[in-house]
Structures are given as structure tokens and as C-alpha cells.
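Please produce the structure of this protein holding iron/sulfur cluster.
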Amino acid sequence: MKFAIPLFLLLIAFALVWLSRRQRACLGIPQGRLVYADMGAEMRVDAPLFDAALNLVGRPDYLVRSGEEFIPIEVKSGRTPAKPYDSHVYQLAAYCVLVASRYGRRPTHGIIRYPQREFRVEFTPELERGLHTLLDEMHAAKHRPEPLPRSHNQAARCRVCGFLARCDQSL
Ligand code: SF4
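Below is the modeled complex.
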């Protein structure tokens, strides 16, 4: 009887670990420690990640630590595409850069999670170069006297765009 209570606590601990692993598997979160989550006002939010050299700031939805590596996870709502949208891939790449800047270790990949499935996106040197090109273009565009013309005819893109309220070219 002396061992009944410790044994009971041990069984509870095993059950909690098992439940937590199962939940992570269901959610698609890789094994690792959830170190930082931005899920709105209800949860504690750390300061956004910042890279002064690139003048880049951002905050992934999750960062998961897997071994020595920090993996950014971006959660998207709406329709699940057959492959990630380019804009989402570049957003994730920006988070990879910010994670590397903050933690001194370049992530090998990040994850984009849509409602129906998630995609592992390799943070390749090519993707990083593409991101830098995009950032250069964006910084150059900021100094143009005229705004860039809209590059698409998709009203759905405008509906989920973060600039919708301020954009005079929205569909
Ligand atoms: S709202 Fe404006 S900036 Fe956003 S996608 Fe539409 S046209 Fe582009």
C-alpha cells in the first residue's frame, strides 16, 4: 500500500505524456518543446522577432524546439491549397531568417499549417535568396512616388490581404 500513491502519480504522469504526444501528432506539431505561441490576447506573447540589418520584424504563430533547432510554424485559415501559396512560403522564409537572427542557428525548414493539412517547407539557400530579392524590391517600392499596380485579378486574395483596409486597388 505504501507504493500505491507514488505508483498512481507515475501512471498519471505517463498518461499525460502519452496524451500530449497524441495531441501533438493529431495537430501535426513535430515532437519538441513548444517555446512560443501567438494565439491572440488570451495567451502570453513574447516580443516579435526582429532583424535590424534587414529591417525585418515578424512573429510566427509557433516556434517549436526540436533538438538544437527552432522551427517556425505558420497557421493559415481558409481553403487548403494543393501546395502552399508563394506569399505564405515567403512569409515562412522571413520567419526562418528572423529565427536564425534571434537564436544564431539557421532553421532547416518551417511548417505551414492549413486547416486540412500542413506542408514542410525546406529553408533552402535558393528560397533565402528569393526572399532577399523580394525584400529589396519591397524596400525599393517604398520609395516610389506612385504605388505599384495590382499584380492580379483575384478578389479572394484581396479579401484576406492585411492591407485591404488601406489599399485603393483592392477587388
Ligand atoms: S488588397 Fe490591395 S495590396 Fe492586398 S492583395 Fe488586394 S490589391 Fe494587393
